[in-house]
């Protein structure tokens, strides 16, 4: 049999094709191993991050105080640099924005660290009418965002003392007047004892670090939390969850007594003024 003649250009083409195949396989293997190693490293780093944040990812919050004027206490991890507190506030409660910006406080490890952060910022979807009763408010829920950031010159000042500790944000908050109680009959005990009330709650609250996108697992403080004032260390047992408040409700049956008392006070005032003029 006569040998088959093959052109040199054909051999060159086959060599080039083999080279391309080897190159493609090499690139695919490189990408495969690079992806596997990167995924493993990311998983390890995420696991480490989870372990690191597990100590500080539980933040308690709730009301401190009673009646119509109290504080909303919110914990946040001290390793958060840009703290954002977000809540859907029912119309039964309201913030006086000017009061919040002036009277809020931030404490950590028993010290006032308010100066280590920028001034507090508060924004809401709807304007807070501080005079309107609950039944005249035009919305059911108002989205509120409270933000503050650690000053760069103070960065790490509190976390170096205890990196797993938490700070405490105290915000003055108020309850609105509810509709009057039309069912309870009048009695001095009911009038002075404030036995008629409605329970209103803030359903949820979130705490986030805008810088790292880390989130804190928030939960209402357990029952029996101190409830009189931020500086009071006594514990008052209560069956009311810390994210709820029993708001006193006025008695409709007491309206005549209230009006009579007001008229009597006015009459007494007039008598005092007249007598003082006669003596002159």
TrEMBL record:
Any one GO CC term of this protein is: membrane
The UniProt transmembrane annotation reads 257-278
Q: Name one GO biological process term.
A: GPI anchor biosynthetic process
Sorted alphabetically, the keyword list is: Membrane, Transmembrane, Transmembrane helix
Q: Does the keyword Transmembrane helix apply?
A: yes
Q: What is this protein called?
A: Uncharacterized protein
- Species, as recorded: Trypanosoma cruzi
């Amino acid at each position: 049999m006569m040998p088959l003649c093959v052109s040199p250009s054909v051999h060159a083409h086959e060599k080039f094709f083999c080279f391309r195949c080897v190159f493609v396989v090499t690139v695919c293997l490189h990408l495969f191993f690079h992806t596997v190693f990167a995924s493993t490293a990311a998983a390890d780093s995420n696991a480490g991050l989870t372990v690191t944040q597990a100590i500080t990812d539980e933040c308690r919050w709730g009301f401190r105080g009673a009646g119509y004027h109290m504080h909303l206490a919110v914990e946040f991890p001290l390793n958060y640099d840009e703290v954002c507190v977000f809540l859907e506030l029912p119309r039964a409660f309201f913030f006086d924005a000017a009061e919040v910006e002036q009277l809020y406080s931030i404490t950590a490890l028993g010290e006032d660290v308010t100066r280590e952060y920028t001034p507090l910022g508060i924004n809401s979807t709807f304007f807070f009418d501080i005079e309107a009763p609950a039944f005249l408010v035009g919305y059911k829920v108002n989205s509120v965002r409270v933000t503050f950031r650690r000053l760069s010159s103070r960065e790490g000042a509190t976390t170096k003392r205890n990196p797993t500790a938490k700070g405490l944000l105290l915000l003055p908050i108020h309850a609105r007047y509810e509709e009057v109680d039309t069912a309870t009959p009048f009695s001095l005990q009911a009038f002075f004892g404030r036995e008629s009330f409605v329970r209103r709650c803030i359903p949820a609250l979130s705490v986030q670090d805008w810088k790292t996108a880390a989130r804190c697992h928030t939960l209402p403080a357990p029952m029996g939390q101190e409830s009189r004032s931020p500086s009071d260390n006594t514990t008052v047992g209560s069956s009311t969850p810390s994210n709820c408040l029993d708001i006193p409700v006025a008695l409709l049956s007491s309206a005549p007594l209230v009006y009579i008392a007001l008229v009597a006070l006015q009459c007494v005032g007039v008598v005092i003024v007249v007598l003082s003029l006669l003596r002159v």
